[in-house]
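Input/output pair, single chain:
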Amino acid sequence: MVAERLSARDDVHLAAPSRRDANGIDYERLCSDPADEMRRFIPDGVEVAISCLGTTIRQARSQAAMYRVDHDYVLAVARGARALGAKRFILMTAAGAGGPGFYLRTKGEIERAVEALRFERVDLIRPGFLLGERTEHRPVEAIGQRLFAALTPLLRGPLSRWGAIPADTVADAIATLALKEASGCFVQENRDLRMIAPAWTQAGNDSHIGRS
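Output:
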């Protein structure tokens, strides 16, 4: 979704390697040699890197396998991008990252690991429950989407971070943030993402997005 948005801009040269492609990125090799594997896809270097990589214990089938994807693979992407000159990194994590439980602890660990690489700018994307089409049809998940959507208006203040948010809104926000140049580390939760997302459409994707 983010790639589709950014590829529409004439001033963005996009590389979107995927492990699903036959000639896609080899994440195990990326872990052992981040710069060399990343250079296969972006030989001329990179300025902004975005990682939305993640899985669940249900998909991975074990905590160790999930940690390999959500921490080790993501960190390898960040290290490869940093080695090839990336100044900014956008990382999709989750609401409550760093909190209790294996999943949130893992998200907190990868956030800290990416921050330690000292990019000029890091945006930590912490959405709540994502609403939108899934690649696989899962009746229970569809029920969960409807439930979270109904409860979200009742979640106020600090609780709002746990509410539902459309995946399209998150994608719009990430695409906008990819063009931001201000330095620092920024945590972007539901409220922030909703405020940022309209700029992608309202500004007509023009060049001033990146200057604030």
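The first strand starts at residue 48 and ends at 51. The CA atoms of residues 87 and 119 lie 5 Å apart.
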